[in-house]
Amino acid sequence: MKRKMHVLASVVALTMALTACGGKTESNTAGTSTPAASASTSTSTAKDTITALLPPVSPNYQKTFEQIAKDFNAANPNLTLKIEPASWEDMTQKLDTQVNAGSPPDIAFIGSEGISKYVQQGMVLDITDTATKEMVADYDKAPLEYMKNGKGLYGFPAYMEVHALGGNKAYLEKAGIDWKKVQQNGWTFDEFREAIKKGVIKENGQTSTYGFVFATKGVAAKDYLGIMAKNAGMPAPFDKDLKYAYTSKNYLGLLKNLRQLIDDGSMPKELSSVDAGKRWNMFLTGQTMITGKGLATFENSAKANNAKITANDGSAVKGSIPVDYIVLPAPTFQGAKASSSTVVDGYVTFRGKKEPTAEHKANVVKAAYFLASGKVAATTNNDLFAAHITQSGKKAAESMKIDRSPDNIIAVDNMLKNATPARPDIPSDLGAKAIKLETEVIVPKFQGLIAGEITAEAMYEAVKTAAIAAFGENGIVKD
Protein backbone atom coordinates (compact mmCIF):
# COMPACT_ATOMS: atom_id res chain seq x y z
CA MET A 1 0.00 0.00 0.00
CA LYS A 2 2.00 0.92 0.90
CA ARG A 3 1.97 1.54 1.45
CA LYS A 4 3.27 2.90 0.20
CA MET A 5 -1.60 3.42 -0.87
CA HIS A 6 -3.44 2.72 1.82
CA VAL A 7 -6.61 2.76 3.79
CA LEU A 8 -8.01 6.09 4.83
CA ALA A 9 -8.81 6.00 8.51
CA SER A 10 -5.92 6.24 10.92
CA VAL A 11 -6.10 3.83 13.79
CA VAL A 12 -4.73 4.99 17.12
CA ALA A 13 -1.84 2.71 17.97
CA LEU A 14 -2.28 0.69 21.14
CA THR A 15 0.56 0.72 23.64
CA MET A 16 2.33 -2.62 23.72
CA ALA A 17 5.94 -3.47 24.54
CA LEU A 18 7.62 -5.07 21.56
CA THR A 19 10.02 -7.92 22.18
CA ALA A 20 13.36 -7.44 20.45
CA CYS A 21 13.94 -9.29 17.21
CA GLY A 22 15.33 -12.74 17.84
CA GLY A 23 12.50 -13.70 20.16
CA LYS A 24 12.76 -15.64 23.37
CA THR A 25 13.50 -19.29 22.96
CA GLU A 26 13.03 -21.29 26.13
CA SER A 27 14.68 -24.42 24.86
CA ASN A 28 17.66 -25.14 22.66
CA THR A 29 15.93 -28.06 21.02
CA ALA A 30 16.63 -27.81 17.29
CA GLY A 31 13.60 -27.36 15.06
CA THR A 32 13.08 -27.89 11.37
CA SER A 33 14.88 -25.35 9.19
CA THR A 34 12.17 -25.45 6.51
CA PRO A 35 8.73 -24.73 7.92
CA ALA A 36 5.79 -26.45 6.31
CA ALA A 37 3.91 -24.46 3.69
CA SER A 38 0.66 -24.85 5.57
CA ALA A 39 2.15 -23.48 8.81
CA SER A 40 1.25 -26.75 10.46
CA THR A 41 2.16 -27.68 14.01
CA SER A 42 5.89 -27.47 14.57
CA THR A 43 7.82 -30.65 15.30
CA SER A 44 9.90 -28.74 17.85
CA THR A 45 8.87 -28.29 21.47
CA ALA A 46 10.91 -25.08 21.84
CA LYS A 47 8.88 -22.09 22.95
CA ASP A 48 9.39 -19.02 20.78
CA THR A 49 7.81 -15.60 20.31
CA ILE A 50 7.58 -13.85 16.95
CA THR A 51 6.88 -10.12 17.00
CA ALA A 52 5.08 -8.16 14.30
CA LEU A 53 4.46 -4.42 13.80
CA LEU A 54 1.33 -4.06 11.69
CA PRO A 55 -0.66 -1.01 10.46
CA PRO A 56 -4.35 -0.99 9.44
CA VAL A 57 -3.76 -2.82 6.17
CA SER A 58 -7.51 -2.96 5.49
CA PRO A 59 -10.53 -1.34 7.17
CA ASN A 60 -11.13 -4.35 9.41
CA TYR A 61 -7.61 -5.77 9.60
CA GLN A 62 -6.62 -4.62 13.08
CA LYS A 63 -9.91 -5.89 14.50
CA THR A 64 -8.76 -9.44 13.65
CA PHE A 65 -5.37 -9.35 15.41
CA GLU A 66 -6.50 -11.33 18.44
CA GLN A 67 -8.04 -14.04 16.27
CA ILE A 68 -5.01 -14.17 13.97
CA ALA A 69 -2.70 -14.70 16.96
CA LYS A 70 -5.01 -17.42 18.33
CA ASP A 71 -5.19 -19.21 14.98
CA PHE A 72 -1.42 -19.11 14.58
CA ASN A 73 -0.88 -20.49 18.07
CA ALA A 74 -3.47 -23.23 17.46
CA ALA A 75 -1.51 -24.34 14.39
CA ASN A 76 1.80 -23.92 16.22
CA PRO A 77 1.27 -24.58 19.99
CA ASN A 78 4.88 -23.82 20.84
CA LEU A 79 4.84 -20.42 19.09
CA THR A 80 3.39 -17.06 20.09
CA LEU A 81 2.68 -14.32 17.58
CA LYS A 82 2.84 -10.99 19.38
CA ILE A 83 1.32 -8.16 17.32
CA GLU A 84 1.85 -4.45 17.94
CA PRO A 85 -0.68 -2.25 16.10
CA ALA A 86 0.44 1.01 14.52
CA SER A 87 -1.31 3.70 12.50
CA TRP A 88 -0.11 4.50 9.00
CA GLU A 89 1.03 7.89 10.28
CA ASP A 90 3.42 6.52 12.90
CA MET A 91 4.34 3.19 11.28
CA THR A 92 7.60 4.38 9.71
CA GLN A 93 8.70 6.30 12.79
CA LYS A 94 8.04 3.34 15.08
CA LEU A 95 9.87 0.94 12.82
CA ASP A 96 12.85 3.25 12.32
CA THR A 97 13.12 3.86 16.06
CA GLN A 98 13.25 0.13 16.71
CA VAL A 99 15.65 -0.49 13.82
CA ASN A 100 18.00 2.26 15.01
CA ALA A 101 17.92 0.74 18.49
CA GLY A 102 19.00 -2.57 16.99
CA SER A 103 15.81 -4.33 18.07
CA PRO A 104 13.27 -4.27 15.24
CA PRO A 105 10.23 -6.52 15.18
CA ASP A 106 10.64 -9.88 13.47
CA ILE A 107 8.03 -8.85 10.92
CA ALA A 108 6.83 -5.43 9.77
CA PHE A 109 4.25 -4.57 7.15
CA ILE A 110 5.83 -2.04 4.77
CA GLY A 111 5.95 -1.15 1.10
CA SER A 112 8.33 -3.23 -0.96
CA GLU A 113 10.10 -0.07 -2.15
CA GLY A 114 11.37 0.44 1.40
CA ILE A 115 13.27 -2.85 1.53
CA SER A 116 16.47 -1.42 0.02
CA LYS A 117 16.71 1.11 2.84
CA TYR A 118 16.81 -1.59 5.49
CA VAL A 119 19.05 -3.86 3.42
CA GLN A 120 21.55 -1.00 3.38
CA GLN A 121 21.29 -0.81 7.17
CA GLY A 122 21.82 -4.55 7.45
CA MET A 123 18.65 -5.02 9.48
CA VAL A 124 16.46 -7.14 7.20
CA LEU A 125 16.48 -10.92 7.24
CA ASP A 126 17.17 -12.79 4.01
CA ILE A 127 14.87 -15.82 4.03
CA THR A 128 15.93 -17.29 0.69
CA ASP A 129 17.38 -20.38 2.35
CA THR A 130 14.47 -20.83 4.76
CA ALA A 131 11.29 -20.24 2.77
CA THR A 132 10.15 -23.63 1.48
CA LYS A 133 9.56 -24.48 -2.16
CA GLU A 134 5.89 -24.93 -1.29
CA MET A 135 5.70 -21.41 0.12
CA VAL A 136 7.37 -19.85 -2.90
CA ALA A 137 5.26 -21.87 -5.33
CA ASP A 138 2.08 -20.62 -3.64
CA TYR A 139 2.70 -17.07 -4.95
CA ASP A 140 2.12 -15.50 -8.32
CA LYS A 141 5.60 -14.81 -9.67
CA ALA A 142 5.38 -11.05 -10.31
CA PRO A 143 4.49 -9.85 -6.79
CA LEU A 144 7.06 -12.11 -5.12
CA GLU A 145 9.79 -10.41 -7.17
CA TYR A 146 9.03 -7.14 -5.41
CA MET A 147 10.12 -8.63 -2.10
CA LYS A 148 13.61 -9.24 -3.43
CA ASN A 149 16.68 -7.06 -3.45
CA GLY A 150 19.59 -8.41 -5.42
CA LYS A 151 19.44 -12.17 -4.85
CA GLY A 152 17.85 -11.92 -1.42
CA LEU A 153 14.22 -12.56 -0.50
CA TYR A 154 13.11 -10.40 2.43
CA GLY A 155 9.56 -11.45 3.17
CA PHE A 156 6.23 -12.24 1.53
CA PRO A 157 3.89 -9.89 -0.36
CA ALA A 158 0.35 -9.30 0.89
CA TYR A 159 -1.14 -8.03 -2.36
CA MET A 160 -0.32 -6.53 -5.74
CA GLU A 161 -2.50 -3.63 -6.71
CA VAL A 162 -2.23 -0.50 -8.79
CA HIS A 163 -2.49 3.08 -7.65
CA ALA A 164 -5.41 4.40 -9.64
CA LEU A 165 -7.71 7.38 -9.58
CA GLY A 166 -11.34 7.25 -8.50
CA GLY A 167 -14.30 9.03 -10.07
CA ASN A 168 -17.83 9.93 -9.04
CA LYS A 169 -19.92 8.18 -11.71
CA ALA A 170 -22.73 10.74 -11.73
CA TYR A 171 -20.30 13.66 -11.96
CA LEU A 172 -18.27 12.00 -14.73
CA GLU A 173 -21.37 11.42 -16.81
CA LYS A 174 -22.65 14.95 -16.16
CA ALA A 175 -19.31 16.26 -17.48
CA GLY A 176 -19.70 14.11 -20.61
CA ILE A 177 -16.73 11.87 -19.81
CA ASP A 178 -16.86 8.38 -21.33
CA TRP A 179 -15.43 6.67 -18.25
CA LYS A 180 -15.77 3.17 -19.69
CA LYS A 181 -13.61 4.19 -22.65
CA VAL A 182 -11.04 5.65 -20.25
CA GLN A 183 -11.06 2.43 -18.22
CA GLN A 184 -10.33 0.46 -21.39
CA ASN A 185 -7.93 2.75 -23.24
CA GLY A 186 -6.55 5.20 -20.71
CA TRP A 187 -6.02 8.91 -21.42
CA THR A 188 -3.23 11.36 -22.13
CA PHE A 189 -2.45 14.35 -19.93
CA ASP A 190 -4.11 16.71 -22.41
CA GLU A 191 -7.28 14.58 -22.42
CA PHE A 192 -7.26 14.38 -18.65
CA ARG A 193 -6.65 18.09 -18.28
CA GLU A 194 -9.66 18.99 -20.42
CA ALA A 195 -11.85 16.40 -18.70
CA ILE A 196 -11.25 17.69 -15.19
CA LYS A 197 -11.91 21.26 -16.32
CA LYS A 198 -15.43 20.08 -17.16
CA GLY A 199 -15.84 18.73 -13.65
CA VAL A 200 -15.37 22.10 -11.97
CA ILE A 201 -18.56 23.60 -10.54
CA LYS A 202 -18.75 27.19 -9.28
CA GLU A 203 -21.42 28.68 -7.07
CA ASN A 204 -21.54 32.42 -6.33
CA GLY A 205 -18.06 32.83 -7.76
CA GLN A 206 -16.59 30.13 -5.51
CA THR A 207 -15.57 26.61 -6.53
CA SER A 208 -17.90 24.11 -4.89
CA THR A 209 -16.62 21.08 -6.82
CA TYR A 210 -13.13 20.59 -8.22
CA GLY A 211 -12.34 18.38 -11.18
CA PHE A 212 -9.50 16.61 -9.37
CA VAL A 213 -8.08 16.41 -5.86
CA PHE A 214 -5.06 14.36 -4.78
CA ALA A 215 -3.78 14.00 -1.23
CA THR A 216 -0.34 15.58 -0.93
CA LYS A 217 0.16 16.10 2.80
CA GLY A 218 1.50 13.82 5.52
CA VAL A 219 2.02 10.17 4.64
CA ALA A 220 0.69 10.87 1.12
CA ALA A 221 3.26 13.59 0.38
CA LYS A 222 5.31 11.52 -2.05
CA ASP A 223 2.49 9.59 -3.72
CA TYR A 224 1.19 12.06 -6.29
CA LEU A 225 4.49 12.79 -8.00
CA GLY A 226 5.78 9.23 -7.69
CA ILE A 227 2.69 7.70 -9.29
CA MET A 228 2.57 10.17 -12.15
CA ALA A 229 6.31 9.88 -12.85
CA LYS A 230 5.85 6.23 -13.76
CA ASN A 231 3.42 7.31 -16.48
CA ALA A 232 5.90 9.90 -17.74
CA GLY A 233 8.56 7.49 -18.96
CA MET A 234 10.24 7.02 -15.57
CA PRO A 235 8.91 3.73 -14.16
CA ALA A 236 11.64 3.67 -11.51
CA PRO A 237 14.09 6.14 -9.96
CA PHE A 238 16.81 4.50 -12.06
CA ASP A 239 16.85 3.50 -15.71
CA LYS A 240 18.08 0.11 -16.92
CA ASP A 241 21.66 1.41 -16.88
CA LEU A 242 21.21 2.36 -13.20
CA LYS A 243 21.37 6.06 -13.91
CA TYR A 244 19.13 8.27 -11.77
CA ALA A 245 16.06 8.97 -13.88
CA TYR A 246 14.54 12.09 -12.34
CA THR A 247 17.04 14.37 -14.06
CA SER A 248 15.35 13.57 -17.38
CA LYS A 249 13.64 16.34 -19.34
CA ASN A 250 10.44 14.35 -18.86
CA TYR A 251 10.64 15.06 -15.15
CA LEU A 252 10.66 18.81 -15.74
CA GLY A 253 7.75 18.43 -18.15
CA LEU A 254 5.83 16.45 -15.56
CA LEU A 255 6.37 19.09 -12.89
CA LYS A 256 5.05 21.77 -15.24
CA ASN A 257 2.00 19.66 -16.10
CA LEU A 258 1.08 19.00 -12.48
CA ARG A 259 1.33 22.68 -11.64
CA GLN A 260 -0.89 23.51 -14.65
CA LEU A 261 -3.81 21.63 -13.13
CA ILE A 262 -3.78 23.95 -10.13
CA ASP A 263 -3.35 27.05 -12.29
CA ASP A 264 -6.32 25.92 -14.41
CA GLY A 265 -8.50 25.97 -11.30
CA SER A 266 -9.20 22.24 -11.67
CA MET A 267 -7.44 21.53 -8.38
CA PRO A 268 -7.51 23.60 -5.17
CA LYS A 269 -4.76 26.15 -4.60
CA GLU A 270 -4.55 24.73 -1.08
CA LEU A 271 -3.68 21.27 -2.42
CA SER A 272 -0.54 21.05 -0.27
CA SER A 273 -2.75 21.02 2.85
CA VAL A 274 -4.95 18.14 1.67
CA ASP A 275 -4.18 14.89 3.48
CA ALA A 276 -5.66 11.46 2.77
CA GLY A 277 -8.60 11.89 5.13
CA LYS A 278 -9.56 15.33 3.82
CA ARG A 279 -9.22 14.13 0.22
CA TRP A 280 -11.68 11.28 0.85
CA ASN A 281 -14.13 13.49 2.68
CA MET A 282 -14.05 15.93 -0.23
CA PHE A 283 -14.89 13.09 -2.59
CA LEU A 284 -17.75 11.73 -0.47
CA THR A 285 -19.23 15.20 0.03
CA GLY A 286 -19.20 16.02 -3.68
CA GLN A 287 -16.36 18.54 -3.57
CA THR A 288 -14.40 16.76 -6.29
CA MET A 289 -15.24 14.72 -9.37
CA ILE A 290 -12.04 12.65 -9.38
CA THR A 291 -9.84 11.73 -6.44
CA GLY A 292 -6.44 10.13 -6.00
CA LYS A 293 -4.69 8.01 -5.11
CA GLY A 294 -7.31 5.33 -5.24
CA LEU A 295 -7.06 1.67 -4.43
CA ALA A 296 -9.79 -0.83 -5.20
CA THR A 297 -10.84 -0.79 -1.54
CA PHE A 298 -12.25 2.71 -1.96
CA GLU A 299 -15.19 1.23 -3.85
CA ASN A 300 -15.92 -0.81 -0.74
CA SER A 301 -15.55 2.25 1.50
CA ALA A 302 -17.90 4.27 -0.71
CA LYS A 303 -20.49 1.48 -0.64
CA ALA A 304 -20.25 1.35 3.16
CA ASN A 305 -20.86 5.09 3.44
CA ASN A 306 -23.77 4.86 0.99
CA ALA A 307 -25.36 2.24 3.25
CA LYS A 308 -24.97 4.55 6.24
CA ILE A 309 -26.67 7.36 4.33
CA THR A 310 -29.54 5.04 3.46
CA ALA A 311 -29.83 3.93 7.07
CA ASN A 312 -29.90 7.58 8.18
CA ASP A 313 -28.27 6.59 11.45
CA GLY A 314 -25.90 9.55 11.66
CA SER A 315 -22.78 7.43 11.11
CA ALA A 316 -22.12 8.51 7.52
CA VAL A 317 -19.49 11.16 6.74
CA LYS A 318 -21.07 14.53 7.55
CA GLY A 319 -22.56 16.14 4.46
CA SER A 320 -21.81 13.13 2.26
CA ILE A 321 -23.83 12.10 -0.78
CA PRO A 322 -24.36 8.69 -2.41
CA VAL A 323 -21.39 7.92 -4.67
CA ASP A 324 -20.82 5.20 -7.25
CA TYR A 325 -17.02 4.82 -7.22
CA ILE A 326 -15.41 4.37 -10.64
CA VAL A 327 -11.80 3.15 -10.96
CA LEU A 328 -9.81 5.24 -13.45
CA PRO A 329 -6.19 5.02 -14.67
CA ALA A 330 -3.76 7.87 -14.17
CA PRO A 331 -3.02 9.83 -17.34
CA THR A 332 0.16 9.42 -19.37
CA PHE A 333 2.61 12.31 -19.81
CA GLN A 334 5.16 13.43 -22.37
CA GLY A 335 4.01 10.82 -24.88
CA ALA A 336 5.11 7.95 -22.62
CA LYS A 337 3.49 4.53 -22.51
CA ALA A 338 1.25 3.62 -19.60
CA SER A 339 3.21 2.20 -16.67
CA SER A 340 0.77 1.70 -13.84
CA SER A 341 2.14 2.45 -10.40
CA THR A 342 2.10 -0.93 -8.74
CA VAL A 343 1.81 -1.21 -5.02
CA VAL A 344 3.21 -4.38 -3.52
CA ASP A 345 3.22 -4.18 0.25
CA GLY A 346 3.92 -7.07 2.52
CA TYR A 347 5.41 -8.72 5.53
CA VAL A 348 9.11 -7.91 5.58
CA THR A 349 11.36 -9.96 7.84
CA PHE A 350 13.86 -8.25 10.13
CA ARG A 351 16.82 -9.25 12.28
CA GLY A 352 18.46 -7.61 15.27
CA LYS A 353 22.11 -6.92 15.89
CA LYS A 354 22.71 -10.62 16.42
CA GLU A 355 22.12 -13.28 13.80
CA PRO A 356 18.94 -15.19 14.77
CA THR A 357 19.12 -18.90 15.38
CA ALA A 358 18.10 -21.16 12.51
CA GLU A 359 15.10 -22.25 14.56
CA HIS A 360 13.89 -18.72 15.22
CA LYS A 361 14.45 -17.76 11.60
CA ALA A 362 12.29 -20.70 10.52
CA ASN A 363 9.59 -19.60 12.96
CA VAL A 364 9.66 -16.02 11.63
CA VAL A 365 9.25 -17.32 8.09
CA LYS A 366 6.39 -19.51 9.22
CA ALA A 367 4.63 -16.53 10.83
CA ALA A 368 5.21 -14.21 7.87
CA TYR A 369 3.83 -16.81 5.48
CA PHE A 370 0.84 -17.42 7.75
CA LEU A 371 0.00 -13.70 7.61
CA ALA A 372 0.52 -13.41 3.86
CA SER A 373 -1.38 -16.46 2.62
CA GLY A 374 -4.45 -18.61 3.10
CA LYS A 375 -7.40 -17.39 5.15
CA VAL A 376 -5.66 -14.32 6.59
CA ALA A 377 -4.67 -13.04 3.15
CA ALA A 378 -8.05 -13.91 1.62
CA THR A 379 -9.95 -12.05 4.34
CA THR A 380 -7.71 -8.98 4.18
CA ASN A 381 -7.60 -8.79 0.38
CA ASN A 382 -11.37 -9.18 0.10
CA ASP A 383 -11.70 -6.32 2.58
CA LEU A 384 -9.43 -4.30 0.29
CA PHE A 385 -11.06 -5.49 -2.96
CA ALA A 386 -7.49 -6.49 -3.87
CA ALA A 387 -6.53 -9.33 -6.16
CA HIS A 388 -5.43 -12.56 -4.51
CA ILE A 389 -1.82 -13.45 -5.24
CA THR A 390 -1.50 -16.88 -3.60
CA GLN A 391 -3.18 -20.11 -4.59
CA SER A 392 -4.03 -20.72 -0.93
CA GLY A 393 -5.61 -17.26 -0.68
CA LYS A 394 -7.64 -17.78 -3.83
CA LYS A 395 -8.94 -21.08 -2.51
CA ALA A 396 -9.85 -19.61 0.87
CA ALA A 397 -11.64 -16.73 -0.84
CA GLU A 398 -13.93 -19.01 -2.84
CA SER A 399 -16.38 -19.20 0.04
CA MET A 400 -16.24 -15.45 0.77
CA LYS A 401 -18.79 -13.14 -0.82
CA ILE A 402 -17.70 -9.82 -2.29
CA ASP A 403 -19.83 -7.07 -3.86
CA ARG A 404 -17.61 -5.45 -6.48
CA SER A 405 -18.33 -3.62 -9.74
CA PRO A 406 -17.50 -5.76 -12.81
CA ASP A 407 -16.41 -2.60 -14.65
CA ASN A 408 -13.93 -1.78 -11.90
CA ILE A 409 -12.55 -5.31 -11.90
CA ILE A 410 -11.88 -5.03 -15.63
CA ALA A 411 -10.32 -1.58 -15.20
CA VAL A 412 -7.88 -2.85 -12.56
CA ASP A 413 -7.03 -5.90 -14.69
CA ASN A 414 -6.26 -3.59 -17.62
CA MET A 415 -3.95 -1.49 -15.48
CA LEU A 416 -2.21 -4.57 -14.09
CA LYS A 417 -1.31 -5.52 -17.68
CA ASN A 418 0.80 -2.35 -17.74
CA ALA A 419 2.08 -2.73 -14.20
CA THR A 420 5.50 -1.29 -13.45
CA PRO A 421 7.90 -4.26 -13.19
CA ALA A 422 9.92 -5.01 -10.08
CA ARG A 423 13.53 -3.78 -10.04
CA PRO A 424 15.49 -6.07 -7.73
CA ASP A 425 18.56 -5.20 -9.82
CA ILE A 426 18.81 -1.76 -8.23
CA PRO A 427 21.62 -2.06 -5.64
CA SER A 428 20.58 -1.36 -2.07
CA ASP A 429 23.01 1.54 -1.73
CA LEU A 430 21.53 3.31 -4.76
CA GLY A 431 18.01 2.57 -3.55
CA ALA A 432 18.79 3.99 -0.11
CA LYS A 433 20.30 7.14 -1.63
CA ALA A 434 17.22 7.60 -3.83
CA ILE A 435 14.93 7.33 -0.81
CA LYS A 436 17.06 9.87 1.06
CA LEU A 437 16.96 12.26 -1.88
CA GLU A 438 13.20 11.84 -2.15
CA THR A 439 12.69 12.52 1.54
CA GLU A 440 15.07 15.46 1.88
CA VAL A 441 14.68 17.19 -1.49
CA ILE A 442 11.84 15.97 -3.70
CA VAL A 443 9.01 15.92 -1.16
CA PRO A 444 9.65 19.37 0.37
CA LYS A 445 10.33 20.95 -3.03
CA PHE A 446 7.19 19.44 -4.49
CA GLN A 447 5.21 20.79 -1.55
CA GLY A 448 6.63 24.20 -2.43
CA LEU A 449 5.71 23.74 -6.09
CA ILE A 450 2.07 22.91 -5.50
CA ALA A 451 1.84 25.70 -2.92
CA GLY A 452 3.07 28.18 -5.53
CA GLU A 453 6.21 29.01 -3.59
CA ILE A 454 8.71 27.81 -6.23
CA THR A 455 8.62 27.13 -9.96
CA ALA A 456 8.89 23.78 -11.71
CA GLU A 457 12.26 24.87 -13.09
CA ALA A 458 13.57 25.69 -9.62
CA MET A 459 12.48 22.33 -8.26
CA TYR A 460 14.01 20.50 -11.20
CA GLU A 461 17.36 22.23 -10.72
CA ALA A 462 17.32 21.43 -7.00
CA VAL A 463 16.66 17.75 -7.70
CA LYS A 464 19.35 17.68 -10.38
CA THR A 465 21.92 19.30 -8.08
CA ALA A 466 21.14 16.84 -5.29
CA ALA A 467 21.26 13.90 -7.73
CA ILE A 468 24.71 14.87 -9.00
CA ALA A 469 25.92 15.13 -5.41
CA ALA A 470 24.50 11.69 -4.62
CA PHE A 471 25.26 9.75 -7.81
CA GLY A 472 27.89 11.79 -9.66
CA GLU A 473 27.80 13.47 -13.06
CA ASN A 474 27.91 10.10 -14.80
CA GLY A 475 25.28 8.56 -12.58
CA ILE A 476 22.32 10.56 -13.81
CA VAL A 477 20.17 10.61 -16.95
CA LYS A 478 21.12 13.40 -19.37
CA ASP A 479 18.73 13.82 -22.27
UniProtKB/TrEMBL annotation:
Low complexity: bias regions: 27-44
UniProt keywords, alphabetically: Signal
Protein name per Swiss-Prot or TrEMBL: Sugar ABC transporter substrate-binding protein
Keyword tRNA processing among UniProt keywords: no
Organismal lineage: Bacteria, Bacillati, Bacillota, Bacilli, Bacillales
Highest taxon, organism lineage: Bacteria
Segments for region (Disordered): 24-44
First and last residue of the signal peptide: 1-20
Record bears the keyword Metal-binding: no
